[in-house]
Amino acid sequence: MSVVSQSPVARHVKTGAYFGVDNEPLVLLELIQRLKVRDVMTPKLVTVSRDAPMRAAQELMRKKKISGIPVEENGRFFGLVSIDDIIRALGGGYIDDPCSRHMTTKLVVLEDDMPLSFALRYFDRYSYGRFPVLNRDQRLVGIICQRDINRVLLVELTSELNRLESASGQNVMRDGSSNIYVLREFPICKYDFESAGKAANQIKQILQEKKFPPKDIRRVAVAAYELEINLCVHSDGGVLSWQVANGRSEIIARDAGPGIEDVEWACRDGTSTASEWIRSLGFGAGMGLVNVKRVSDEFEITSKKGSGTTVKSVIQIGNTPP
Amino acid sequence: MTVIEVAEAIKADVLVKGESCHKAVRHVVASDLMSDVLLVDEEDLLLLTSLASDQVLRTAQIVGAVGVILVNGKPMPSSMVNVANDLRMTLAICPLAKYDACVAVHAALNRA
Amino acid sequence: MTLQNLIHACGFEPVLVAAPQTEVTGAYTSDLLSDVIAHCPDGAVLVTVQNHKNTVAVCTLVGAPAVLVVHRRDIPEDMLDAARREGVALLRTPQDQFAASCKIGAVLEKTAK
Question: Which ipTM was obtained for this model?
């Protein structure tokens, strides 16, 4: 589920704020200390043995829709076969070799009774998409990916937000004139593909309820959707904020990293830095920013490698209030 | 021809009847890349895809599609029916491969 | 039908065709490489928007003789290299996936009669 709010907590769900760098996100801090890795990990594991062919791992990934399989025998953990390993095997023509020859063995692992804050720091520090989880006896007990964390955190946060929001009241208001004034903020988490798109869906529904012209609604929705997916695929997480006033829709997608090296290149048709498994989910074809630019009346992007990226899309949606 | 009629013509199972299920299909898009779908400017389009994910329905809603036909008879995540109901998006599933579904839809629309 | 005849009948752009007499038995339309690996029949032309060298690797794996890139998307140099190495033909069309698939369908049906 996505979290829709202007409440203080939502603003803190920006990357970096997980650790209380610039603020005191007390709700989150409390949560990530309270929850243990074992509360969040996927415990039921699909594994392969060392001498299983890479093709068997590929087949399992396809069937189970997962992006990495641990190599394990009798609870002993040897390594991990990822989608990238499979793609390399297909490219290099060694897909029938045993997993033990090509699996990733340089691995960082987590322990099941570490607090969730540890896992978050690991994801921050290393570029891996998942970590195997071992118990005290060094037996493999699960695997944890960012999506697991996002899902659990969002569930916990939403219940908290619902409580806060019912206290602070509605956040759609009308100003003195008859112009509609809407302001929404949607926190977007990295790799949370299940929730990605929900903000754009809601934006479209709100505009439809307000009876704006369908053509304009579609442009706003497309821009919001692409920016939302971008935050999900490419950033470490960020916030999509949207406001409408006086027939002007303004979407701002802001993240705290990793930043874009060559902005001009990124805005070109067909260029993409997405990995193969993101492509396999139907994203990362390199058309996102081009598409946002195409539907926007004003488009602005500022980015710096190593820090964050901000994209602004302004779309006129009828000069007269509906 | 409506999306329901197209679905029946190619022997697809209609799982969710959405709000536009009786609107005529004016354009057909076949794609598994959602950015590709977002580039299309046509109205009242029918989306043929082999991507079985909630994103397909969200994308379809964004571009105002009249319906989605999931090809390849793919096992789909159970959430898809719920999301289709939430978004009031027509969702059908068809055992044909996407290529064969394209040819069959084309034939059905030409007959109509 | 031969690859050459299909290209001619459909009006596709032959970007790289090393073996024009290769027999084409059908087509498979997909942008998901994992789906292609799982379902693409031997001898089918792969209709896709994925202009990527991995597409060629997957074609080799499933025995697809050619890739048709739709929307006239650019074919990167490393994809051309891979196709040359693996003996996979590369075709292009400005049409979208639906139109291109229907076109191939119509041409193959006509020759079947």
Answer: 0.91
